[in-house]
Amino acid sequence: MGARRDLIVIGGGPAGAAAGMTAARAGLDVLLVDKAAFPREKLCGGGFTGRSRRHMTEIFGRDVTPDLFLPCNRFRLVAGTSLVAEMADAPTIWMTMRRAFDAMLLDAAADAGCTLATGERIASFELDAGRVVLASGAEVSAPVIIGADGAASMVARRLFGRAHDPARVGFGMEVEVPRDCTEETDAVEIDLAAAEWGYGWSFPKAGSITLGVGGIHRRNPAMTATLDRFLCGRSREDARLRPRGAFLPFGEVRAVPGQGTTLLAGDAAGLVDPITGEGIAWAMKSGQLAAQSVAEALADRRPEMALPRYRRALAPIRAELRRARALRWLFYQPLLQPVFLKLLAGEPRLQRRYLALLSGEADYADLGWRALPRLAARMAGRAIQPRA
Question: What's the topology of domain 170-248?
Protein backbone atom coordinates (compact mmCIF):
# COMPACT_ATOMS: atom_id res chain seq x y z
CA MET A 1 0.00 0.00 0.00
CA GLY A 2 3.00 2.29 0.31
CA ALA A 3 4.31 4.10 3.36
CA ARG A 4 3.62 7.63 2.16
CA ARG A 5 0.58 9.01 0.34
CA ASP A 6 -0.77 12.43 -0.51
CA LEU A 7 -4.12 11.73 1.17
CA ILE A 8 -5.71 9.07 3.35
CA VAL A 9 -9.50 8.78 3.22
CA ILE A 10 -11.12 6.81 6.04
CA GLY A 11 -14.54 5.49 5.04
CA GLY A 12 -15.80 4.10 1.74
CA GLY A 13 -19.40 5.36 1.62
CA PRO A 14 -20.57 8.12 -0.76
CA ALA A 15 -18.51 10.82 1.00
CA GLY A 16 -15.33 8.75 1.01
CA ALA A 17 -15.81 7.54 -2.55
CA ALA A 18 -16.39 11.11 -3.77
CA ALA A 19 -13.28 12.29 -1.92
CA GLY A 20 -11.18 9.46 -3.32
CA MET A 21 -12.53 9.98 -6.85
CA THR A 22 -11.94 13.74 -6.82
CA ALA A 23 -8.47 13.57 -5.28
CA ALA A 24 -7.31 10.83 -7.65
CA ARG A 25 -8.53 12.77 -10.66
CA ALA A 26 -6.57 15.77 -9.35
CA GLY A 27 -3.43 13.66 -9.51
CA LEU A 28 -3.08 12.85 -5.82
CA ASP A 29 -1.87 9.50 -4.52
CA VAL A 30 -4.85 8.42 -2.42
CA LEU A 31 -5.44 5.49 -0.09
CA LEU A 32 -9.04 4.82 0.96
CA VAL A 33 -9.51 2.58 4.01
CA ASP A 34 -12.73 0.95 5.18
CA LYS A 35 -13.23 -1.83 7.70
CA ALA A 36 -15.98 -3.35 5.55
CA ALA A 37 -15.52 -5.44 2.47
CA PHE A 38 -17.79 -4.11 -0.26
CA PRO A 39 -20.58 -4.71 -1.14
CA ARG A 40 -21.75 -4.28 2.44
CA GLU A 41 -25.10 -3.60 4.10
CA LYS A 42 -25.98 -0.06 5.14
CA LEU A 43 -29.03 1.15 7.04
CA CYS A 44 -30.67 3.72 4.79
CA GLY A 45 -34.10 4.19 3.30
CA GLY A 46 -32.40 4.48 -0.06
CA GLY A 47 -34.17 7.60 -1.27
CA PHE A 48 -32.15 9.19 -4.06
CA THR A 49 -33.21 12.76 -4.83
CA GLY A 50 -32.74 15.02 -7.80
CA ARG A 51 -29.96 16.72 -5.82
CA SER A 52 -28.22 13.38 -5.36
CA ARG A 53 -28.54 12.67 -9.06
CA ARG A 54 -26.96 16.01 -9.97
CA HIS A 55 -24.04 15.49 -7.60
CA MET A 56 -23.47 11.92 -8.73
CA THR A 57 -23.39 12.99 -12.36
CA GLU A 58 -21.04 15.87 -11.62
CA ILE A 59 -18.61 13.90 -9.45
CA PHE A 60 -18.74 10.36 -10.79
CA GLY A 61 -19.97 10.89 -14.35
CA ARG A 62 -22.76 8.37 -13.70
CA ASP A 63 -26.50 8.75 -14.12
CA VAL A 64 -29.41 6.80 -12.71
CA THR A 65 -29.82 3.42 -14.42
CA PRO A 66 -32.59 0.79 -14.20
CA ASP A 67 -30.27 -1.80 -12.65
CA LEU A 68 -29.66 0.32 -9.53
CA PHE A 69 -32.50 2.85 -9.35
CA LEU A 70 -36.28 2.55 -9.29
CA PRO A 71 -38.02 5.83 -10.27
CA CYS A 72 -41.06 6.68 -8.15
CA ASN A 73 -43.58 9.41 -8.94
CA ARG A 74 -46.46 8.36 -6.70
CA PHE A 75 -46.35 9.98 -3.30
CA ARG A 76 -48.54 9.66 -0.23
CA LEU A 77 -48.26 11.75 2.93
CA VAL A 78 -50.17 10.45 5.94
CA ALA A 79 -50.45 11.07 9.64
CA GLY A 80 -51.30 7.70 11.12
CA THR A 81 -54.56 6.62 9.51
CA SER A 82 -55.31 10.09 8.09
CA LEU A 83 -54.43 10.86 4.47
CA VAL A 84 -52.87 14.32 4.18
CA ALA A 85 -51.86 14.40 0.52
CA GLU A 86 -51.59 12.02 -2.39
CA MET A 87 -50.06 12.70 -5.78
CA ALA A 88 -49.63 10.48 -8.82
CA ASP A 89 -47.30 12.87 -10.67
CA ALA A 90 -44.93 13.95 -7.91
CA PRO A 91 -41.32 14.98 -8.63
CA THR A 92 -39.27 11.83 -9.17
CA ILE A 93 -37.48 10.20 -6.27
CA TRP A 94 -35.33 7.23 -7.22
CA MET A 95 -34.99 4.31 -4.84
CA THR A 96 -31.78 2.36 -4.53
CA MET A 97 -30.21 -0.32 -2.36
CA ARG A 98 -27.15 1.05 -0.62
CA ARG A 99 -25.32 -2.27 -0.84
CA ALA A 100 -25.11 -2.02 -4.63
CA PHE A 101 -25.05 1.78 -4.89
CA ASP A 102 -22.10 2.31 -2.54
CA ALA A 103 -20.13 -0.46 -4.23
CA MET A 104 -20.69 1.20 -7.60
CA LEU A 105 -19.33 4.54 -6.34
CA LEU A 106 -16.33 2.87 -4.75
CA ASP A 107 -15.54 0.99 -7.95
CA ALA A 108 -15.67 4.30 -9.84
CA ALA A 109 -13.18 5.83 -7.38
CA ALA A 110 -10.86 2.85 -7.86
CA ASP A 111 -11.15 3.18 -11.65
CA ALA A 112 -10.07 6.83 -11.28
CA GLY A 113 -6.86 5.74 -9.53
CA CYS A 114 -7.79 5.70 -5.86
CA THR A 115 -6.14 2.78 -4.04
CA LEU A 116 -8.61 0.80 -1.91
CA ALA A 117 -7.92 -0.96 1.36
CA THR A 118 -11.37 -2.37 2.10
CA GLY A 119 -11.97 -5.07 4.68
CA GLU A 120 -9.09 -3.48 6.59
CA ARG A 121 -9.57 -2.36 10.18
CA ILE A 122 -7.51 0.46 11.61
CA ALA A 123 -5.46 -0.61 14.61
CA SER A 124 -4.34 2.89 15.57
CA PHE A 125 -3.80 6.31 14.13
CA GLU A 126 -2.10 9.58 15.02
CA LEU A 127 -4.02 12.35 13.36
CA ASP A 128 -1.52 15.06 14.25
CA ALA A 129 1.21 13.08 12.52
CA GLY A 130 -1.06 11.91 9.71
CA ARG A 131 -0.18 8.28 10.39
CA VAL A 132 -2.46 5.25 10.23
CA VAL A 133 -1.61 1.69 11.26
CA LEU A 134 -3.84 -1.04 9.85
CA ALA A 135 -4.72 -4.25 11.67
CA SER A 136 -2.59 -6.10 9.10
CA GLY A 137 0.44 -4.21 10.39
CA ALA A 138 0.80 -1.94 7.35
CA GLU A 139 1.60 1.65 8.20
CA VAL A 140 0.77 4.59 5.96
CA SER A 141 1.04 8.34 6.39
CA ALA A 142 -0.13 11.45 4.55
CA PRO A 143 -0.09 15.20 5.10
CA VAL A 144 -3.91 15.27 5.21
CA ILE A 145 -6.59 12.81 6.33
CA ILE A 146 -10.31 12.94 5.44
CA GLY A 147 -12.64 11.21 7.88
CA ALA A 148 -15.71 10.03 5.95
CA ASP A 149 -16.55 7.18 8.30
CA GLY A 150 -20.19 7.87 9.05
CA ALA A 151 -22.37 8.77 11.99
CA ALA A 152 -20.22 6.83 14.50
CA SER A 153 -17.02 8.27 13.05
CA MET A 154 -13.90 7.08 14.86
CA VAL A 155 -12.07 10.06 13.37
CA ALA A 156 -14.56 12.51 14.90
CA ARG A 157 -14.32 10.68 18.22
CA ARG A 158 -10.56 11.10 18.21
CA LEU A 159 -10.84 14.79 17.34
CA PHE A 160 -13.72 15.80 19.60
CA GLY A 161 -14.21 13.02 22.13
CA ARG A 162 -17.42 11.74 20.52
CA ALA A 163 -18.90 11.55 17.07
CA HIS A 164 -22.11 13.40 17.97
CA ASP A 165 -24.30 14.18 20.95
CA PRO A 166 -26.69 11.20 20.97
CA ALA A 167 -29.39 13.30 22.65
CA ARG A 168 -29.41 15.83 19.82
CA VAL A 169 -29.15 13.66 16.74
CA GLY A 170 -31.62 11.18 15.33
CA PHE A 171 -32.03 7.45 15.53
CA GLY A 172 -33.68 5.26 12.93
CA MET A 173 -34.77 1.66 12.57
CA GLU A 174 -35.92 -0.16 9.46
CA VAL A 175 -36.74 -3.52 7.96
CA GLU A 176 -36.69 -4.85 4.43
CA VAL A 177 -39.93 -6.55 3.37
CA PRO A 178 -40.57 -8.61 0.22
CA ARG A 179 -42.82 -6.69 -2.14
CA ASP A 180 -45.49 -9.38 -2.12
CA CYS A 181 -45.87 -9.04 1.66
CA THR A 182 -47.37 -5.56 1.58
CA GLU A 183 -50.57 -4.15 0.16
CA GLU A 184 -49.11 -0.95 -1.27
CA THR A 185 -46.02 -1.45 -3.40
CA ASP A 186 -45.74 1.40 -5.87
CA ALA A 187 -45.85 4.61 -3.84
CA VAL A 188 -43.42 6.50 -1.64
CA GLU A 189 -45.19 7.03 1.66
CA ILE A 190 -44.22 9.34 4.53
CA ASP A 191 -46.04 9.06 7.88
CA LEU A 192 -45.49 12.18 9.98
CA ALA A 193 -47.25 10.63 12.99
CA ALA A 194 -45.02 7.56 13.19
CA ALA A 195 -42.31 9.09 15.42
CA GLU A 196 -41.74 12.16 17.58
CA TRP A 197 -39.90 14.90 15.68
CA GLY A 198 -39.46 12.51 12.78
CA TYR A 199 -41.43 10.26 10.48
CA GLY A 200 -41.99 6.77 9.19
CA TRP A 201 -41.31 5.70 5.64
CA SER A 202 -42.33 3.11 3.10
CA PHE A 203 -39.92 3.12 0.16
CA PRO A 204 -40.47 0.67 -2.71
CA LYS A 205 -37.48 -1.05 -4.29
CA ALA A 206 -37.16 -3.39 -7.24
CA GLY A 207 -37.68 -6.52 -5.15
CA SER A 208 -38.61 -5.25 -1.70
CA ILE A 209 -39.95 -2.37 0.35
CA THR A 210 -38.02 -0.56 3.06
CA LEU A 211 -40.18 0.22 6.10
CA GLY A 212 -38.70 2.36 8.84
CA VAL A 213 -39.05 5.05 11.46
CA GLY A 214 -36.67 7.76 12.56
CA GLY A 215 -36.68 10.82 14.77
CA ILE A 216 -34.73 12.77 17.36
CA HIS A 217 -33.22 10.20 19.69
CA ARG A 218 -34.15 11.80 23.01
CA ARG A 219 -37.78 12.09 21.89
CA ASN A 220 -37.97 8.41 20.93
CA PRO A 221 -36.38 6.37 23.72
CA ALA A 222 -38.24 3.19 22.71
CA MET A 223 -37.73 3.14 18.95
CA THR A 224 -38.18 -0.63 18.71
CA ALA A 225 -41.73 -0.28 20.03
CA THR A 226 -42.28 2.68 17.69
CA LEU A 227 -41.21 0.53 14.75
CA ASP A 228 -43.49 -2.28 15.87
CA ARG A 229 -46.48 0.09 15.92
CA PHE A 230 -45.58 1.42 12.49
CA LEU A 231 -45.32 -2.08 11.05
CA CYS A 232 -48.65 -3.17 12.50
CA GLY A 233 -50.94 -3.81 9.55
CA ARG A 234 -48.26 -3.04 6.97
CA SER A 235 -46.64 -6.46 6.81
CA ARG A 236 -48.11 -9.93 7.05
CA GLU A 237 -44.79 -11.66 7.72
CA ASP A 238 -43.43 -9.95 10.82
CA ALA A 239 -41.57 -13.11 11.84
CA ARG A 240 -39.26 -12.73 8.86
CA LEU A 241 -38.31 -9.14 9.64
CA ARG A 242 -34.88 -8.31 10.99
CA PRO A 243 -34.82 -4.68 12.12
CA ARG A 244 -31.62 -2.66 11.98
CA GLY A 245 -30.92 0.57 13.81
CA ALA A 246 -28.41 3.40 13.56
CA PHE A 247 -27.89 6.99 14.63
CA LEU A 248 -28.76 9.64 12.05
CA PRO A 249 -26.68 12.80 12.62
CA PHE A 250 -29.24 15.32 11.40
CA GLY A 251 -29.58 18.71 13.03
CA GLU A 252 -26.06 18.89 14.43
CA VAL A 253 -23.80 20.24 11.70
CA ARG A 254 -20.27 20.72 12.95
CA ALA A 255 -19.25 24.38 12.99
CA VAL A 256 -15.69 23.32 12.17
CA PRO A 257 -15.63 20.12 10.07
CA GLY A 258 -12.28 18.91 11.30
CA GLN A 259 -9.18 19.95 13.13
CA GLY A 260 -5.62 20.66 12.03
CA THR A 261 -4.94 18.65 8.89
CA THR A 262 -7.89 16.30 9.41
CA LEU A 263 -11.17 17.01 7.62
CA LEU A 264 -14.62 15.46 8.16
CA ALA A 265 -17.13 14.84 5.38
CA GLY A 266 -20.65 13.45 5.07
CA ASP A 267 -22.35 12.03 8.16
CA ALA A 268 -19.13 12.40 10.15
CA ALA A 269 -19.55 16.18 9.77
CA GLY A 270 -23.29 16.06 10.52
CA LEU A 271 -24.26 16.98 6.96
CA VAL A 272 -27.76 15.49 7.02
CA ASP A 273 -31.00 17.35 6.34
CA PRO A 274 -32.82 17.77 9.72
CA ILE A 275 -36.26 17.64 8.07
CA THR A 276 -35.99 14.98 5.38
CA GLY A 277 -32.99 13.01 6.68
CA GLU A 278 -31.31 13.22 3.26
CA GLY A 279 -27.60 12.58 3.55
CA ILE A 280 -26.41 10.98 0.31
CA ALA A 281 -26.32 14.19 -1.70
CA TRP A 282 -24.44 16.18 0.93
CA ALA A 283 -22.09 13.26 1.54
CA MET A 284 -21.02 13.16 -2.10
CA LYS A 285 -20.71 16.94 -2.40
CA SER A 286 -18.79 17.37 0.85
CA GLY A 287 -16.40 14.58 -0.12
CA GLN A 288 -15.74 16.36 -3.39
CA LEU A 289 -15.23 19.74 -1.69
CA ALA A 290 -12.91 18.26 0.93
CA ALA A 291 -10.74 16.60 -1.72
CA GLN A 292 -10.62 19.74 -3.84
CA SER A 293 -9.53 21.73 -0.79
CA VAL A 294 -6.80 19.19 -0.06
CA ALA A 295 -5.54 19.28 -3.66
CA GLU A 296 -5.36 23.08 -3.62
CA ALA A 297 -3.60 23.17 -0.26
CA LEU A 298 -1.04 20.57 -1.28
CA ALA A 299 -0.40 22.40 -4.55
CA ASP A 300 0.54 25.41 -2.41
CA ARG A 301 2.60 23.13 -0.14
CA ARG A 302 0.45 24.24 2.78
CA PRO A 303 -1.55 21.22 3.96
CA GLU A 304 -2.66 23.15 7.03
CA MET A 305 -4.77 25.34 4.72
CA ALA A 306 -6.95 22.43 3.57
CA LEU A 307 -9.38 22.86 6.47
CA PRO A 308 -9.85 26.66 6.09
CA ARG A 309 -10.42 26.17 2.36
CA TYR A 310 -12.90 23.40 3.05
CA ARG A 311 -14.82 25.48 5.60
CA ARG A 312 -15.28 28.24 3.03
CA ALA A 313 -16.37 25.79 0.33
CA LEU A 314 -18.81 24.10 2.69
CA ALA A 315 -20.44 27.35 3.87
CA PRO A 316 -23.42 27.23 1.42
CA ILE A 317 -24.30 23.68 2.48
CA ARG A 318 -24.07 24.58 6.17
CA ALA A 319 -26.31 27.61 5.53
CA GLU A 320 -28.86 25.42 3.76
CA LEU A 321 -28.95 22.97 6.67
CA ARG A 322 -29.32 25.83 9.15
CA ARG A 323 -32.38 27.01 7.21
CA ALA A 324 -33.80 23.51 7.40
CA ARG A 325 -33.21 23.38 11.14
CA ALA A 326 -35.05 26.70 11.56
CA LEU A 327 -38.03 25.32 9.61
CA ARG A 328 -38.10 21.97 11.38
CA TRP A 329 -40.36 23.18 14.15
CA LEU A 330 -43.13 23.85 11.62
CA PHE A 331 -43.04 20.23 10.48
CA TYR A 332 -42.51 18.38 13.75
CA GLN A 333 -43.35 20.53 16.79
CA PRO A 334 -46.24 18.57 18.39
CA LEU A 335 -48.48 21.60 18.96
CA LEU A 336 -47.92 23.04 15.48
CA GLN A 337 -47.79 19.89 13.41
CA PRO A 338 -51.58 19.27 13.27
CA VAL A 339 -52.09 22.84 12.05
CA PHE A 340 -49.37 22.47 9.44
CA LEU A 341 -50.85 19.18 8.20
CA LYS A 342 -54.33 20.70 7.99
CA LEU A 343 -52.95 23.59 5.95
CA LEU A 344 -50.98 21.22 3.74
CA ALA A 345 -53.99 18.98 3.12
CA GLY A 346 -56.04 21.88 1.77
CA GLU A 347 -53.49 23.52 -0.51
CA PRO A 348 -52.14 21.64 -3.56
CA ARG A 349 -49.64 24.43 -4.25
CA LEU A 350 -48.11 24.01 -0.80
CA GLN A 351 -48.03 20.25 -1.36
CA ARG A 352 -46.01 20.80 -4.54
CA ARG A 353 -43.49 22.98 -2.72
CA TYR A 354 -43.19 20.45 0.08
CA LEU A 355 -42.57 17.64 -2.41
CA ALA A 356 -40.04 19.76 -4.26
CA LEU A 357 -38.06 19.99 -1.00
CA LEU A 358 -38.35 16.27 -0.30
CA SER A 359 -37.30 15.32 -3.82
CA GLY A 360 -34.33 17.66 -3.93
CA GLU A 361 -35.80 19.70 -6.77
CA ALA A 362 -35.76 22.82 -4.56
CA ASP A 363 -33.59 24.14 -1.74
CA TYR A 364 -34.74 25.77 1.47
CA ALA A 365 -33.12 28.97 0.21
CA ASP A 366 -35.63 28.91 -2.66
CA LEU A 367 -38.44 29.45 -0.16
CA GLY A 368 -37.07 32.83 0.88
CA TRP A 369 -37.06 33.93 4.48
CA ARG A 370 -40.18 36.03 3.90
CA ALA A 371 -42.10 32.80 3.34
CA LEU A 372 -41.53 31.70 6.93
CA PRO A 373 -43.53 34.45 8.69
CA ARG A 374 -46.25 34.20 6.03
CA LEU A 375 -46.55 30.47 6.58
CA ALA A 376 -46.53 30.95 10.37
CA ALA A 377 -49.28 33.56 10.07
CA ARG A 378 -51.42 31.25 7.94
CA MET A 379 -50.91 28.46 10.44
CA ALA A 380 -51.89 30.77 13.30
CA GLY A 381 -55.02 31.76 11.39
CA ARG A 382 -55.97 28.10 10.97
CA ALA A 383 -55.29 27.41 14.62
CA ILE A 384 -57.70 30.09 15.83
CA GLN A 385 -60.51 29.44 13.37
CA PRO A 386 -63.77 28.78 15.23
CA ARG A 387 -65.10 25.27 14.97
CA ALA A 388 -68.34 24.75 13.11
Answer: D-Amino Acid Oxidase; Chain A, domain 2 (3.30.9)
